[in-house]
Amino acid sequence: MSLTVIAVTLGCAVPTHRIDISYAPRPDIKLIPGTHAINVSVEVKDSRLEKFRLTSKRNTFIETTPILVKNDVTSALRWALEIELKNLGFSVEGAPQVYVIAELVRFNNDYEMEYINGQTVADMHFFIQVLGKNRQFRYATTISTQSSGEDSILARGEITRLALNKSLETGMDKLFTDKTFIASLLKKDQ
Are the beta carbons of 76 and 134 closer than 8 angstroms? Predict the structure, then answer.
């Protein structure tokens, strides 16, 4: 009987899972007066070693199922930054007066499984710099987030996708509620 459970468990976990990373903008954001005249350029650099493999499901003994990303994670991060800037009233088109430069260092998921159920922990880490029109330094910070959820072999990567998307949303919330970051975007060049 126990061999049957192991065979079913391993058999369910063998296919590779491919997930999309997406971003849901923060709700009820108020425009900041004066932002419509400020053009912001968003640049995202990817410093991760693994660009497409986000994690692998593992049981107690072995790695069982790779989970790969379908879309470009840096494009999702860029879009998240741009949509939040637009929602505050900034323009992301035209000759830039401000540069927001993000460097993605970590965006993956750790997965531990016991038989059919397990725990997924998504982790995101990126650096942000704000530079003025002539690329003079205005601001820098590091954003780190984690989110987790219960997962199972049968979920086929869905909980991993939700946890990673939640990490991205939490990262944007941390950044865009940072008053020093917002002030650096509004600062006038000397």
Answer: no
* Token pair for 18: 């491919």
Phi–psi pair at 51, nearest 5 degrees: -90, -30
* Cα–Cα distance, 104 to 88 (Å, whole number): 23
Give per-residue pLDDT as tens, 114-172: 666 667 788 899 999 999 999 999 999 999 998 877 665 555 577 788 888 999 999 99
Assign 3-class secondary structure to the chain. Answer: CHHHHHHHHHHHHCCCEEECCCCCCCCCCCCCCCHHHCEEEEEEEECCCCCCEEEEEECCCCEEEEEEECCCHHHHHHHHHHHHHHHHCCECCCCCCEEEEEEEEEEEEEEEEECCEEEEEEEEEEEEEEEECCCCEEEEEEEEEEEEEEEEHHHCCHHHHHHHHHHHHHHHHHHHCCHHHHHHHHCCCC
